[in-house]
Amino acid sequence: MAKQPEQILEEQLVTQLAKLGYGLILIKDEKELVANLKQQLEKHNNIQFSKKEFEKVLNILSKGSVFEKAKTLREKQHIVRDNGDNLYFEFINSEHWCQNQFQVTHQVTIEGKYKNRYDVTLLINGLPLVQIELKRRGLELKEAFNQINRYQRHSFGANSALFQYLQIFVISNGVNTKYYANNRLQSFKQTFYWTDKENKRLTNILNGFTSEFLEPCHISKMICKYIVVNETNKILMVLRPYQFFAVEALIDRVINSNKNGYIWHTTGSGKTLTSFKASQILMNLPQVKKVVFVVDRKDLDYQTNKEFNSFSKGCIDGTNNTNQLVRQFSNDTKLIVTTIQKLNTAISKKQYLDKMEKLKDEHIVFIFDECHRSQFGETHNRIKAFFNNIQLFRFTGTPIFADNAVKNELGKRTTTELFGESLHKYVITDAIKDENVLKFSVEYVGRYKKKETATEIDIEVEDIDTKELMESPKRLEKIADYIIANHNRKTHSREFTAMFCISNVATLIKYYDILQARKEAGLHNLRIATIFSYVSTQEKRRQNLF
Fold first, then answer.
1. What is the rounded end-to-end Cα distance, in angstroms, of the chain?
2. What residues does CATH 3.90.1570.50 cover in the chain?
3. What share of the chain is helix, strand, coil (3-state, %, to 5)?
4. Rounded to 5 degrees, what angle do the CA atoms 247, 250, 253 make?
5. C-alpha pair distances (Å), 201 with each of 188, 393, 415, 447
6. E-assigned strands of 356-401?
7. Most buried among 244, 464, 498, 506, using CB within 10 Å?
8. Which of 117, 91, 118 is nearest to 220 (CA)?
């Protein structure tokens, strides 16, 4: 009988996985799965379990939800041996993730509410930690996603429930392949394509995805280092590829150099999760004394503390005031979240210097979240001058380049001048392609065009005064009239709000006067308000007119 396309894909995948270093083993059912688990755990821990001792191991594995089992997987374990001795062992080596036992099997049958047979399963130390569900070419990936959901309801929790230890799911129809964490609350929209460092998708499971993502050391690293056990929602989260590459770049920079750098990830792409994972890994490096995550405002300080602790409960202590911040610098706290204002006070005020100066030569990693206003002033230089052995990294969705740099008393300062080179980029076009942010459209209403009769010499000689052109009263009045005429249509009869961004205060005032005059003349009933956001020097402001 001819083989079905799905079966052919499965056999090709298993063959490729075996070539990558997975031991190929045929496991038909629950009994064989448990027997193999015993052998693999004994091999990994270099021990032998008696029948009663292994029953105790299975008892440990049987307890808890998927979330609780994810924590069990990562914890050191203990049982009392038959002779009364204490035995300590592990289910997975998280610190040296390549030093585990890797196997691949397929068509395992587990009978629960219904009998289910799973496509391809990756075992690490005998535990099923990655499940791959395949569909033939032409079928939508969501069918594979829905099938895994059925397995979760019908059979993953059956018998010894070892399949509840799954950490990552992979779904593929051969041409398109995605991955996601074992989280029953997750929707199909929260499944991810894997990419390379330049954000180029690796969608074909046999051509790129398997060799990069499912390679034994890499998938083990994803499970050991890049799964986040979210304490607040009691779910597992896995990093997206751009988050992974950003964290990897930061770790490499700290381990192998004393240079700084910045991560350019667009707004809404999950910088808090990325920065948390980077901070968590960096603080455990033996050469790093402390990791300090720096935000720009008190409300963000609270928000970041809350989010960090949701990813890992109790991982940080809040710094409610400068005294507490200085105590955290002085004690064994490894991860600190604070505002740049409190940090500035700690290294500037006389009453704190005795304690802070003891850290001048320690290797401290500072991670700045945006901090546009305060980083482009004296505070940045003060931090660099105070500490002798620090590395500075910045996460930003809007880096400052030469053409958009703000000039202050220190001159024009770009992100590269302050932090060094970009370590990873994930810009708005990448996020729109991945549907990680809302799409937007750009409309151009009226353009200035070069006269057909103009020559390059004419344009050079004229040397157009751009500021005079862009801020001419006639142009401002036309734009104000366009806003009045189209506001209701563009905002769907004011169901949505709108923001009008102005380049400088003087122009903002002109727009305000024009719109107010037209309101007094009865041409519109829009409410006009202004918001000013001051930089530390108070010389430059970003204005928004609503």
1. 69
2. 5-238
3. 45, 20, 35
4. 150
5. 18, 27, 28, 36
6. 364-369, 390-396
7. 244
8. 91
Strands across the sheet containing 115-124: 23-24, 102-111, 115-124, 127-134, 168-172, 177-181
Rounded to 10 deg, the angle between the 51-62 and 66-74 helix axes is 130
Length of the chain: 546
Q: What are the DSSP calls for 462-483, one per residue? A: H---HHHHHT-HHHHHHHHHHH
Tell me which residue has tokens 């409960």: 313
Query: Residue with structure tokens 């734009």?
Result: 479
Whether the CB-CB separation of 177 and 170 falls below 8 Å is answered with: yes
Helices (DSSP H) in 357-491: which residue ranges? 372-375, 378-386, 415-419, 428-433, 456-462, 466-470, 473-490
Give the residue ranges of DSSP H helices in 137-198: 141-154
Quick one: tokens of 432?
């729109």
User: Model's pTM, two decimal places?
Assistant: 0.82
Contact partners, residue 68, CB within 8 Å, separation at least 6: none
Q: What sign has the CA pseudo-torsion 131, 135, 140, 144?
A: negative
Q: What is the pLDDT along the chain (546 residues), one digit of tens a residue?
A: 456 688 999 999 999 999 999 999 999 999 999 999 999 999 999 999 999 999 999 999 999 999 999 999 999 999 999 999 999 999 999 999 999 999 999 999 999 889 999 999 999 999 999 999 999 988 999 999 999 999 999 999 999 999 999 999 999 999 999 999 999 888 898 899 999 999 999 999 999 999 999 999 999 999 999 999 888 888 999 999 999 999 999 999 999 999 999 999 998 888 888 988 999 899 999 999 999 988 876 555 556 666 666 655 555 555 668 999 999 999 998 998 888 888 999 999 999 999 999 999 999 999 988 765 555 567 788 899 999 999 999 999 888 887 665 555 445 678 888 889 999 999 988 998 888 776 666 777 876 666 666 555 554 545 556 778 888 899 999 999 999 999 999 888 888 888 888 878 889 999 999 999 999 999 999 888 887 655 444 334 333 333
**Which region, left, alpha or beta, applies to residue 53 given φ > 0 means left and ψ of -120 to 50 means alpha?**
alpha
In this structure, what are the phi and psi dihedrals at residue 481, rounded to the nearest 5 degrees?
Answer: -65, -35
Q: For residue 133, give the nearest of 162, 112, 163 by alpha carbon.
A: 163
One-letter-per-residue 3-state SS of 33-92:
HHHHHHHHHHHHHCCCCCHHHHHHHHHHHHCCCHHHHHHHHHCEEEEECCCCCEEEEECC
Q: What is the CATH number of domain 248-433?
A: 3.40.50.300
Residue 287 CB coordination number (10 Å): 9
User: What is the assigned CATH class of domain 5-238?
Assistant: alpha beta
